[in-house]
Amino acid sequence: MILAHLDLDAFFAAVEELEQPELRSKPLVVGGDPHGRGVVATANYEARKFGIHSAMAAAEALRRCPHAVFVRPRHTLYREYSQAVWTAVREVVPTVERTGLDEGYLDIGEVAADFARARVVAEAVQAAVRGATSLSCSLGVASSKVVAKIASDRRKPGGLTVVPAGREAEFLAPFDVRRLPGVGPRAEERLSRSGVETIGALAALPDGELRRLLPGKLGPLLRDRARGIDPRPLETTSETISISTEETFDRDIADVEQLKAEVRRMAERVAERLGKGSQTARTVTTKVRYPDFSIRSRSTTLPVATDDSGRIAELACALLDRALTDRPGALRLVGVGVSGLEDHRQLALLG
Predict the structure, then answer these.
(1) What percent of the chain is modeled with pLDDT above 90?
(2) Mean of the pLDDT values across residues 8-25?
(3) What is the number of other CB atoms lying within 10 angstroms of the CB of residue 96?
(4) For residues 123 and 128, what is the distance between their CA atoms, to the nearest angstrom?
(5) Does residue 292 contact residue 24 with C-beta atoms inside 8 Å?
(6) Would you give the distance in Å from CA 230 to the centre of its chain?
(7) 316, 286 in Cβ contact below 8 A?
(8) Pairing of strands 160-162, 137-142
(9) Which pLDDT does position 278 carry in this prediction?
(10) pLDDT at residue 292 is higher than 50
């Protein structure tokens, strides 16, 4: 098994920097009101130099860096970027398990026969994410989830760490035991009192000492993980929840009628795929990307599902108008998608 853990670097802050480039050189904190009871959701790497991190009280972040810029989270925007990221990832590695907007696991072994090839595939994933969204991500490649997750944090931002089969325990051994998924505050305290400070020390515990420190099933589970043993498979679903298509233009297009012609062609392709699957859809979405790589999407939901290409095209063009009204200008990419799929076809009565 060859897996990868993908983690987008300072995701919320990175999106805000793309949307507001003037923030890139400043310490940026995404979170609540620093003068109230807000909490830091994430901070860019400039802010992290001051010791600011997620889950910290926003007031403490302000104390550590009085000149930091604070912005409130925009979760709808982050979901749009996240969707674009995972669409790009699936073009390289089809099988993924998303564990959040900004992280998840990839079945690299599906497309790579060995760890040398897996590195090439992981680099292709990073390039695909960067090309689609201008975001950077860090990846860890290993034979199990626990090793891949720890490896993805090894060389942030934009890093790639590959741990070949047979090197798992050696790789994990120097890390602080708290880095091991599953080791909570109580378990860490028990281990620390007995001098077990590293993952390697946990891996070396004999059975009797392990039962004393971590009774029940937890001890063997954590010791296995400390040795790189983690048989958990990817939790995926084969259910199709949306259908979409998009096109990146060779040159930015400003002409609205030309853009609508592209949208109509995409709507026909989406409707054709609905027809082949004997499906209909209730929600239509139009996605646009501007020359600065910022993304906008607009959606509308119908009372009755459809697979009619003309109706999908009509709605998609109207959504394009909405996006361009909110932000006029040339576009680098346009996409059309449908969701809210149903496994039966509605009959339309003529006349």
Answers:
(1) 72
(2) 94
(3) 20
(4) 9
(5) no
(6) 22
(7) yes
(8) parallel
(9) 84
(10) yes
Full set of structural domains in the chain with CATH: 3-10+76-162 (3.30.70.270), 11-73 (3.40.1170.60), 168-226 (1.10.150.20), 242-342 (3.30.1490.100)
- Quick: pLDDT tens for 217-275: 889 999 999 999 999 999 875 456 778 898 888 899 999 999 999 999 999 999 998 98
Determine the residue type at 255: D
Q: What are phi and psi of 196, to 5 degrees?
A: -90, 95
3-state secondary structure the chain: CCEEEEEECCHHHHHHHHHCHHHCCCCEEEECCCCCCCEEEEECHHHHCCCCCCCCEHHHHHHHCCCCEEECCCHHHHHHHHHHHHHHHHHHCCCEEECCCCEEEECHHHCCCCHHHHHHHHHHHHHHHHHHHCCCEEEEEECCHHHHHHHHCCCCCCCEEECCCCCHHHHHCCCEHHHCCCCCHHHHHHHHHCCCCEHHHHHCCCHHHHHHHCCCCHHHHHHHHHCCCCCCCCCCCCCCCEEEEEEEEEEEECCHHHHHHHHHHHHHHHHHHHHHCCCEEEEEEEEEECCCCCEEEEEEEEEEEECCHHHHHHHHHHHHHHHHHHCCCCEEEEEEEEEEEECCCCCCCCC
Q: How many CB atoms lie within 10 A of CB 303?
A: 5
Mean pLDDT, rounded, of the chain: 91
pLDDT recorded at residue 344: 53
Tell me the Cα Rg of the chain.
24
Q: What residues are annotated to the active site?
A: 103
The dihedral of CA 105, 106, 112, 117: what is its sign?
A: negative
The Cα–Cα gap between 256 and 279 comes to 30
Residue 316 near residue 346, CB atoms below 8 Å: no
CB atoms within 10 A of CB 126: 20
